[in-house]
Amino acid sequence: MSKKLTVLVAILAVSFLGTAFAAVENVKVGGKIDMYALSRSDFHLGGGTDYDASALASILKLSISADLTEDVSANTVLFHERIWGGGTSASGTPTASGNMLLGGLWITLKNFLDYPLTLKIGKQGVKIGSGLIVADPNTNYKGASNFAGTAFSDLCGAKTFEGIMATLDYSPLVLNLGLIKNSEGDEYDSDDRDIYILDANYEVDETTSAELYYILDDRKKADIGNIGVRVVSSPVENLILTGEIAYQYQRYANVGFSSAPRTDKHSSDLAILASATYKLTDTWVPMSIGLDYIRISDKWDPMYEEITPADIANALFKNSNYQAICVNLGADLTDDVSLSLRYANLRLVGKVSTLSGDTNSVTQPWGGYTMDQEKDLGNEIDLHLTYNYTEDVQFSLMYGYFNPGDAFNDSNDDSASQVIGKMKITF
Question: Which CATH architecture does the domain made up of 26-426 adopt?
Answer without folding.
Answer: Beta Barrel (2.40)
